[in-house]
Amino acid sequence: MSDKPEIRTIYTLVEETCMDGVKSLENPTRKAACAVVFKNPYAGVYQEDLSLLYTWSEELGEMLTQKAVAALGIEPEKVESYGKAAIAGLAGEREHCAALMHPALGKPIRANVGGGKALLPSAKKMGGPGTAIDLPLGHKNAAYVRSHFDAMEVRIPDAPGPDELVLMVGVTDSGRPFPRVGGLTTDEVKGEDGLK
Q: Could you say which of 32, 106, 171, 187 has the lowest number of CB atoms within 10 Å?
């Protein structure tokens, strides 16, 4: 087993919304996701110690976040929302996704978006090639900013294979178009406790 992930594909996607409903936006809202497809070292076997995936997630998380921010063409500090997701191929387990996302991935994401006090929203699932996942997004400093409750669908046509994992990071430069359901505004964020 290699001590480095065996990467097959890196996939970057940018979604730019110019119109929502019947109104056009003066400044489009933009979301970017970067996903990596790599061999699952534990496909088809039960492994109690998943710490290798923790280690890999730090390295992959830095690369994914940097690429997603670069795709938006903004400075890391200008990122407003973030999120993470993972898909395991059918010879893997949901716990392999959890091992990639929960113990160690937050640190490299926050380090590459100019900080972040709020919890990183996450999603995980099993599936075969072409499986779509809604990568959840939330304001990086305050969970109560409802204008930034959102998601971005990500799907890689040929991944994951049965023995593969897909890990992804998403970032935005803004919230939803024309938000009007209350909550904190970005101007009101204190960014002290991850909530407000």
A: 187
Largest CA distance in the chain: 54
Taking the C-alpha atoms of residue 62 and residue 159, their distance in angstroms, rounded to an integer, is: 21
**Assigned domain for 108 exists:** yes
Q: Find the domain containing 144 and state its range.
A: 7-188
Please count the structural domains in the chain: 1
127 neighbors 90 (Cβ within 8 angstroms): yes
Quote the Cα angle for 153-156-157, to 5°: 120
Q: Which parts of the chain register pLDDT below 50? A: none
Question: Would residue 53 count as lying in a domain?
Answer: yes
Q: Give bridge partners of residue 37 from the DSSP assignment.
A: 9, 166
**Euclidean distance between the first and the last CA atom of the chain, given in angstroms as a whole number:** 44
The DSSP bridge partners found for residue 79 are: none
In this structure, are strands 132-139 and 81-88 parallel, antiparallel, or unpaired? antiparallel
Does a cis peptide bond (omega within 30 degrees of 0) precede residue 157? no
20: in domain? yes
Q: How far apart are CA 57 and CA 103, in angstroms?
A: 9
The tokens 């929302």 sit on which residue?
Answer: 81
Helix, coil or strand: residue 38: strand
pLDDT recorded at residue 44: 97
Tokens of 188: 């009101």
What pLDDT is stored for residue 188 in this prediction?
83
Residue 178 maps to which CATH number? 3.30.1330.110
Q: Say how far apart CA 80 and CA 138 lie, in whole Å.
A: 8
